[in-house]
Prior knowledge:
- 4 copies of one chain form a homotetramer.
- Chain A is mostly helical.
- Helices cover 76% and strands 0% of the residues of chain A.
- The longest helix of chain A has 23 residues, at 26-48.
- The radius of gyration of chain A is 22 Å and the shape is globular.
- Chains A and B meet through helix 2, helix 7, helix 9, helix 11 and helix 12 of A and helix 2, helix 7, helix 9, helix 11 and helix 12 of B.
Amino acid sequence: MPQTSRVAVSLLSRTIGEDAVVTRNPERSRNAILRAATEEFATCGLGGARIDRIAARSGSNKRLIYYYFGSKETLFKIVLERAFAGIRSAEQALHLDELDPAEAVRQLITFTWNYYIAHPEFLTLLNSENLHRAVHLRSLPHIREMNSPLISLIDGVLERGRASKTFRGGVDAIQLYVSIAALSYFYLSNSATLSTVFGRDLLAPKARAERLSHMTEVILGYLLL
Amino acid sequence: MPQTSRVAVSLLSRTIGEDAVVTRNPERSRNAILRAATEEFATCGLGGARIDRIAARSGSNKRLIYYYFGSKETLFKIVLERAFAGIRSAEQALHLDELDPAEAVRQLITFTWNYYIAHPEFLTLLNSENLHRAVHLRSLPHIREMNSPLISLIDGVLERGRASKTFRGGVDAIQLYVSIAALSYFYLSNSATLSTVFGRDLLAPKARAERLSHMTEVILGYLLL
Amino acid sequence: MPQTSRVAVSLLSRTIGEDAVVTRNPERSRNAILRAATEEFATCGLGGARIDRIAARSGSNKRLIYYYFGSKETLFKIVLERAFAGIRSAEQALHLDELDPAEAVRQLITFTWNYYIAHPEFLTLLNSENLHRAVHLRSLPHIREMNSPLISLIDGVLERGRASKTFRGGVDAIQLYVSIAALSYFYLSNSATLSTVFGRDLLAPKARAERLSHMTEVILGYLLL
Amino acid sequence: MPQTSRVAVSLLSRTIGEDAVVTRNPERSRNAILRAATEEFATCGLGGARIDRIAARSGSNKRLIYYYFGSKETLFKIVLERAFAGIRSAEQALHLDELDPAEAVRQLITFTWNYYIAHPEFLTLLNSENLHRAVHLRSLPHIREMNSPLISLIDGVLERGRASKTFRGGVDAIQLYVSIAALSYFYLSNSATLSTVFGRDLLAPKARAERLSHMTEVILGYLLL
DNA sequence: CATGAATGAGGTTTCATTCAT
DNA sequence: GATGAATGAAACCTCATTCAT
C-alpha cells in the first residue's frame, strides 16, 4: 500500500514537471521540517512540542526528523539558531549610520516593533529558551555572532546625537538597545494576559498604532535634550 | 469546617500515640502542594511540569494532589491566581497618592523591579500563561480583580504632575504602566539569553544597580518637562 | 471499557473467595513480572527481550514494570541476582563435608548437572551477562555473596581426599569447581549447535546419562590416585 | 566473474581520472563488511547488533550491506559459517596422527585454548547461535562439513593409546572432544562473570598459564593409566 | 484525610529495510 | 557497483490520571 502511493506521488511530480519536487530533495525536506518545527516550538514550547505534529506539518515523518537532526533538543537548537540568524539578517537592512540621530532611533524602534509583530515565533522561542536558562543557546558554536552588530551602530548614533547637542550624554548603548526591545517585546509577548486583564484587545490596529507612538515618545523624550 | 476535622484528627493521632508531627493537616498539605506546584510550574512551564515532582517536592503524593485540585490544569490555574494575588497584595503597600509625582513614579519603578527580582516565578508563570494565550487566566472568576488598582492611582499621579507643570501631558496610564513593567520584566525574564549573547552577567549586583538607574532615567526623562 | 473489565475481575476474585487474588497485590505483581522477565531474558537475551512480552506474560502492563523496576536494565539486574540466589540456595542442600571425598565429588557433579538441566535459564542469563562483560553483575551490591560457599567446602573435600591418600595433591579448589561447571555448562549451553554439528540429539535421555557418567569419570579419573 | 567486473570498474575509474584509491572493489567491500559484522555480532549479539554500526565500521553503507547480503539474518549466517570455517582451517595444521598419544592430546588442548583466546568472537558468536537454538547453523548448506574432522583423528589417538596401554579404554572421542572444548570455552566465555564473582582477574597471564596446566592435568590424569 | 498500586494513551527514539539515483 | 534519502513498525519509556483501601 505505501508502495502504491509512492509510485503515485512519483508519477505526479513527473506529470507536473517540476524538477524540484522530486521525491528526493534533502534540502527541501530539511527546510520543511525546520519550518514546521519552528511553528511547533513557537506555539507549544520545547516541552509541549510534539515530534509527531512536526512530522505531520512538514509532510515528512518522524524518522526523517531524527535522520536529519538526531533529537528533539538538537532540532530546537537549530530552530533557535535560525531565529537569531533571521533577525540579525533583517537588521542588515537598517542603515542607522546614514540617518540623523533622532531618525535613526525612530527607525530602530519601528523596525523592532514590526519585526516582533511579523515574527511572533521569535518571541516565544526566546521565552522558551529563557525558561531553560539559555542552555541551548550557550551550546551553539556561533553565539558570539548572535550578538547584535547594532550595538556599535547605536553607540555611533548616540555619539553623533550628543555631539550635535540633540541627545543627552551618558547613555549606554546596550541599556538603550535592551529598553527599546523591552518596550515592544513585553507588550507583544504578554499581549494575551494583558488584554485579558485590561479587558481590551491590545493587538487591535488602533492599539498597535498607539503603542508604537507611545514607545517612540518615551525613548525620544528621554534622549532628546 | 477544616478546623473541626483537624482537631478530631489531631486527637486521633494523639490517641494512637503518634509523635508531635501532625500527619493530617489539610491546610498544611494544600499549601505545601501549592508551593511545590508554583516552583515546578515556574521552573518547567506547564508542559514540562511533572505531577510526580510536585508530589515529591511537597512531601505529599500524587493522589492527594488530585484529591485537592482535580487536575494539573486546575492546579496551574490556582497557582496563577495566587501569583496575581501576591503582586496585587504587595502593591497595597505603595501609597502613590501620598507622594509627589516624580517620587511616586520612582517608587513604582523600584517596586516593580524589586518585586520581579524577589518573585522570579511570577515572570515565568506569566510567560507560560501567555504561551497558552491566557486560556487559564480567562477562565478565572476574579479576573476583573486582577486588573491592577494601580492604573487609577497612576492616572492620579500623572494628573497631579501635569497640573503642577512637572510632567508632560497626554500620557496614558496604561501605556506608562506597561512600559514600566516592560523595562524590568524583559531584562529579568530574558536575562539568561541576554547574558549569553552579550557575554556578561546581567544579574550581577553592579549590573542590577545600573539597570534600575537607567530605567528610572528613561521614564522620568520622558515624563519630566 | 477498561473499567468494566476491572469491575468484572474484582467481582470474580470475590466470588472465588481467594483472598490472595485481590486486584491489589504488589508482592504477587512483582513476582509475576520477575518470573516473566526471567523467561524472556533467558529466551531472547537482554537485547532481544521485549518489555511488551514481559508485560503480556506476567499478566500486567508495561507501566507497572517501570513502576516497580524503573528500566529494562534494572529489571535484568534483579533477574540476574535472583538467578544467582537460586543456585546458591540450592547448593545449601549439599552437605559435601558429611560425605567421603569421592562421593562428595560425585554428588557435586550430579548436582551441577541436574541444576543446569532444571534451570536452563541460568545458563542463558549468564551468557547474556558475559556478553555484556558483567557490567550488571558488577553493579550489584551483594556480589561478594554471589561467590559460591562451595569453594571452601570443596577445599575441605580435597584436603580430606589427599590426607586419606585417595586424591592427588596440588589441586586448586577454584580450578576444580570451574572445571566441573564447565563440563556440564558447555555441553548443555551449546547443545543446540553441538547437536546440529554432530547430527545427533545431545539432550536425549541416553545421551544425557552417558554425559553424566563421562564427566564423573573424567573428574574422578583425574583426582583418584 | 567478479574479477572481470572489477577490471571493468578499475578501467572506468581510471578513465574518470580518479586517484589510485580504487573505490569500486566488490571483494574488498564484501570482506570489509564481513569483518565489521563479525566484530559487531561478536560484541553485541545478534539482537544487539546494529546494521548502522556495521556500515560505519566497514567504511561502507547500509545499502551495500543489503545489496550483498540481503538481510541481517543472512549476514549473521555467513559470519557464522566463516567462523566455523576458520577453526576448521586452523585445525588442519594439527597433525595428531603423527604424534604419540599423550603428546597429541596435549597439543589438542593447547590448540583449543590458544584458538579460543585468539578468536574470542568465535565463542560469542556460538553463544548467540545457541541462544537461537542453532536455527541459522541448521540452514547452512555445508553443516556436515562443519563437523570437525578431528573426531576421527581423536578416535585414532585414543585407539593408539589404548593399544599401547598408556590410555584407558572405553573413551568416546566425541565426549572427550566436547570435554576438552568445555574446559577452555567455559573459562574464557564466562571469564567476565567468574572474575567478578571470584574477585580476581582470570585473564591475567599467570592465571591463564595455571588454567592451561590444570586442564592438561585433568584430561591426561583421566586418560593415562 | 491520606496513599500505594495500577493503567491507557501517547511520548521520543531506534531499527531493519527500501527507494531513487 | 555504490550511496544518501526515506520510512513503517515497533522499541523503551513517561505521563496524567484512577482504583482500592
